[in-house]
Amino acid sequence: MIARLVGLLKEIVIAKEFGLSAELDTYFLAILIPMYAVVSLTNPLGPTFIPVYNRLEIKGKEEAQVLFSKILGYVFYGSVALALIYWILIPFLSIVLNVDATNESLFRSISLLFVPIVVVQSISNYLLPFLENRKLFIFTSMGTVLSSLGVLVFIYLFSSILSIAAGMLASALLFLFIQIVALLMKGNVRLIFSFKLDRVETGLKKQYSWLLLASATMGSTLVVDQYMASFFGVSSVSGLNYGYKLAGIVCGLGSISLATVALPVFSKLIAQGNKDKVQSLVRSVLSLIAFLSIPLVVVIYLYSDEIISLIFERGAFKAVEVDFVSELLKFYILQFPFYVGGVVLSRLMSTLGKNDQVFVISFVALILNVMLNIGFTKWIGISGIALSTSVVYLFTFIALFFTSGNALQKDFA
In sequence order, what DSSP letters do the residues of 74-99 get, joined into one string? Predict the structure, then answer.
C-alpha cells in the first residue's frame, strides 16, 4: 500500500511539472524498450527457479547454493549483453518509435541513462524472489518506494525530464546495495558466481525459455500500445501512460501481494501433493478478488473525471487533459479483476511446470491485442487501445482458468 501511494505521489508531481507534453512522450518512448527487455528477461526467474531451489534446499543447502550461483552468472552476463545491444540500437530506436525530430537529443540522453539501469535492475529482479522466499516481503515494495522517492528528489533538485531517469538510476543502485546486504545477513546464500558459465539442467532451461517467451509476448502488448499511440499526435503517449499507470496502481494493490505469497505457497503445496488444498486456495483467492475488485471498478468508472481532476489537475496539467486521461482510465480499469486473477493463475501454472501453455495463451493474446487495437481505435479513437487491453486480460484470465484446472487434474490424477 505504501509503495503504491508513494508511486502515485510521484505521478502527481510529474503531472504537475510536465503535464501532457512532447517531452514527456519522449521520456516514455525512451524507457519503453529497456524496461520491456528487463521485465521480459527477469520476470520468469522467480517462478522458474524458486520451486527448484526449495526442493534442492531440502536435500542439501550446497546444491541450492550451486543453482543460485549458476543463474546469477547467467543474469549478469545476459544483462550486460542486453545493455550493450540496447546502447548500439539507441540511434535506430528513435526512428522506429516515431520520436519527434526536435526531441531526438532528449531521447538519446534518457536512453543512455537507462543503459546501466538494464544491468542493475536485472540483477535486482533476480535477487528479489530469493528475499521473498525467506519471507522478507518488505523488499517487494521497497524497490518501488525507493524508485519513486529517487525520482521525486531529482525532480525537486533539477526539475527536468532527464531528472526522472537520473532518479531511477540512483534509486536502483541503492536498492541493489540494500538487497545484497540483506541476502548476506538473512538470505542463507553466498553472493558468488563463477566467471565461467556452468551448464544448467535442460528441464530448467526449457521451463525458463517457455516462460521468457510468455513474458516477452505478454509484455509486448504495452510496446504495441504505446507505439500505436505515438501516431495519434503530441501528448497521446503520455496521456495513455497516465491512464495506464493509474489503473496499474489500483491493480498492483492486489496483484503484487497475491503474486508474492502465491508462488512459495503453491510450490510447497504441490511439492506435498496436496491437490485439494491447492484447488481450495485458488477458489478462495479468486472469490476474494471478485468481491473486492468489482465494486471498485464500478466506482472508478463512474467517477473517473472527478478522480483524475482531484489527483492531477494542477500546474502544467490542465482541465482539457483531465477529460482525455479520464476517458482512458474508464477503459483501463475494466481489466482489474481479470489482471489480478490472471497473475495468481499464471503463478500456479508456473509452479506446475506448464510454462509452454502460458506462452501459447500469451501469444494468442498478443495477436488479439493488435487486432482489437486496430478495430477499437477506428471506433473510439485512442481510447480503443485501453479497451483492447482490458478485453485481452479478460481472455487471458479465462484461458488460464481452464488450463490451470486441467493441469491440476492431470498432474494429480
Answer: HHHHHHHHHHHHHHHHHHHHHHHTT-
